[in-house]
Amino acid sequence: MTTPLFEAKNLQKYFPVKGGILNRTQAQVKAVDDVSFAINPGETLSIVGESGCGKSTTGRAILRLDDPTDGEILFEGQNLMELSKSDLRQKRKEMQIIFQDPYASLNPRQKVKQILDEAMAIQGVVPKAKRPERIRELMEVVGLRPEQAERYPFQFSGGQRQRIGIARALSVDPKLIVCDEAVSALDVSTQAQVLNLLKKLQKDLDLTYLFISHDLGVVRHISDRVIVMYLGKIVEIADKRDLFDSPRHPYTRALLSAIPIPDPSKTRERIVLQGDVPSPMNPPSGCRFHTRCPFATDICKAEEPELRSTTFMNETHKAACHHIEKIAETEKTSIV
Amino acid sequence: MASNEQTPVLEVKGLQTSFFTPDGEVKAVDGVDFSVNSNETLGIVGESGSGKSITSLSVMRLIQHPGKIVGGTIELSGEDLLKKSKQQFAKYRGNRLSMIFQEPMTSLNPVFTVGSQIAEAVRIHKKLDKKAAWQEAVNMLKLVGIPAPEDRAKRYPHELSGGMRQRVMIAIALSCDPELLIADEPTTALDVTIQAQILELIKELQEKSGMAVLMITHDLGVIAETADKVVVMYAGEVVEQADVKTLFKRPLHPYTQGLMNAIPRHDIDLDELEMIPGTVPTPQNMPSGCRFAERCPYARDLCVEKHPELATPSNNVDEGITTGQTRCWIYTDEWDGPNPTKGVATNQ
Question: With contact defined as beta carbons under 8 Å apart, do B308 and B328 qualify?
Fold first, then answer.
């Protein structure tokens, strides 16, 4: 059993909703509600889900970019929740983040070399004299020409800007990188370039990724393990192959069946979910998916399902559903 | 059965749309041809900057200064739309041809209820009185699958979810029974489960009304599931066109092949994604030869020097095989030697 690089235990992130004449907190948006998972060194763990499921909030909360409401976040066994601001800053060099829109996260008035230099200066990882050399190196690592460090962000294309975002994250030699929709804004041809780059860097530099995305194709390509979230909860967690080949939670199954496949000769049964995702301010009782679930029964409205595994599932594969067995059974009969 | 001589609902020939910037003319769409029949969906696929959205805006005559349609014809059931005056065309837009956009929130008016916005479209084009128009609006909301339509008609756009808003947009677009619906990235801003609902809805409504649909998207998955015919655009031009099965089975243009191999798939494992190196050329320095040449693994001097035409392959295609049309020297008689793309397996 490897010791995990990172662990989140019972993580919660609530956002208060204020209103009324006294501007009191009237309700809580439970963006992330009791989420636990671990990331092993060298692996890519992905979180997928639709808008509002809490995947990005989870990514931000574990870096304490938004302080979690409750729970523990352990990095190499150390609880980050207990660190002071300055200790936390020290720790941040181990954990970096790449955002969706690199243009919004790069200072437009700084040249690329200043952007990279600043990151290293703040963390104090590379002495000043050695930084120009390191910048040249970083540019090459992410597939840009060293002399392009003299340019400003607007002089680059979207894919190249994302490479700069990656170079900045790498500049402080992190162990863990959170990629928050890192390739979502890119065209497929450039997206492929950046995905291949991320994979290569992982191998070369021994990186660990938490990859947050709504795109299941991208997730299958890059992940070792996958978490599916719905309305602030983990509904399924599994090794990549288990999740894509034998999804157990009805939401995961619907999600997978909804994605259009670029192959017109493939026909398949599509599960079209009715209605929209309910508001996280007032989530449904019991299983949060029961309002849209074709298998829901009374127990789903009353009791919240635990993440669990059964006899026919790998032990690393867990789903939060009362009816895993029943659904597997109906599947068997429909195949026969 | 439709005869071969049926007049297409939309026929675009040699369309050229340019933007006149201080730095000179930018040819965003440079000689595009296609046609769509009734009950048919034509997909236009391309990446950012390919000119796919400018093409659709040109058909709707929504190109704004400094842009201008500088050449070509756009015919709706045989009538040339570009010859109509502004007043004449206003009777067509929203009536005989309609459009839905990517972000429904920005195309709906935030200060009017959704019901009144649908009713407005109906009143203008169908000459109904207020009460009848409102009733029609409620009927349309019901048609696009919005639950409790009487109540929802009185709501404002911000009170509805993204998927609901897109349904409202579709209701407005279809309220006058158009011959042609242009859907420009209609599901790009939506989550996949909602995307599935909306695509299903468009298909259903098409089956009912027989309208022609122009589906503009960057997503080859959406194309594969919705389109009958496909046009692939690159840098302002059509580089390949074929019916959907042919295109996915036997993509000809190296760009189309590259695009298909670059998509990460959720249904199969791929070791490495094929990359198309480099980026789309900017309109300011458009290559004079083939526009894809500098990113193409097979490019020769010929490709850099001479601009290829969109044509049915006359070379390097096995006999008896149906293909579409492509804009690539490999498939012309000027290409010496075998087809270098032969044996390039796509992920299909």
Answer: yes
Q: Where are the domains of chain B?
A: 10-232, 249-331
Give tens-digit pLDDT for B234-277: 999 999 999 999 999 989 999 999 999 999 988 888 878 888 88
- Looking at domain B10-232, what is its CATH homologous superfamily? P-loop containing nucleotide triphosphate hydrolases (3.40.50.300)
* pTM score: 0.86
- Residue A5 C-alpha, separation from nearest chain B C-alpha, in angstroms: 26
B244: closest CA of chain A, how far (Å): 7
Q: Which domain holds residue A80?
A: 6-94+174-247
Q: Residue A6, Cβ neighbours under 10 Å: how many?
A: 24
Closest CA to B235 of B182, B306, B289: B289
Q: Shortest CA distance to A146 belongs to which of A137, A155, A156, A157?
A: A137
Q: Give the domain CATH number at A202.
A: 3.40.50.300
* Rounded Cα distance, A251 and A264, in Å: 24
Contacts of A249 in chain B (CB under 8 A): none
In a domain, A190, yes or no: yes
Q: Does the interface ipTM go beyond 0.90? A: no
Side-chain-side CA neighbours of B86 within 13 Å: the count stands at 2
- Put simply, the answer to whether A188 touches B218 (Cβ < 8 Å) is yes
